[in-house]
Amino acid sequence: MSAITDLHTLLANLEPQLQPQEYVFCCVPGLLSDYTQLNPLAAFSEKEGMTLVLEANAAQQAGFDSAATYRQITLNVHSALDAVGLSAAVADTLAAADISANIIAAFYHDHVFVPSNKAEQALSALQALSADNQ
Fold this sequence. Notes:
By secondary structure, the chain is an alpha+beta fold. The chain has helices at 7-12, 56-61, 86-96, 119-132, and strands at 16-28, 42-46, 49-55, 70-75, 102-105, 110-115. Strand 5 and strand 6 (110-115) form a beta hairpin. One of its GO terms (molecular function) is chloride ion binding.
């Protein structure tokens, strides 16, 4: 199936899936190659440093602050990178439920990181968003 750009179709087919792991976001100096042994889920370079998304256990073992943990909700719909409005609709839905959302768009799917203590609530909100668009 090719990537979807139509917002209504994307929302109707979100198929959000809560992943079991807990993650933390860490800012580190240096290059990604300095941290590959931690097996980061994601990395992004900024002028202030490199952000790594690490499993909470790996971050803790490496001595990083792991107090704020997040759960990943994968949106299993195959969203196009140039689709308009998906991230906004997801963020608006979660904001209405007072849940922060950190969204990472990958090639096939979008991944929403929400505070661990609100993960089930976030999953329910996204399931309702999808049902409302069917």
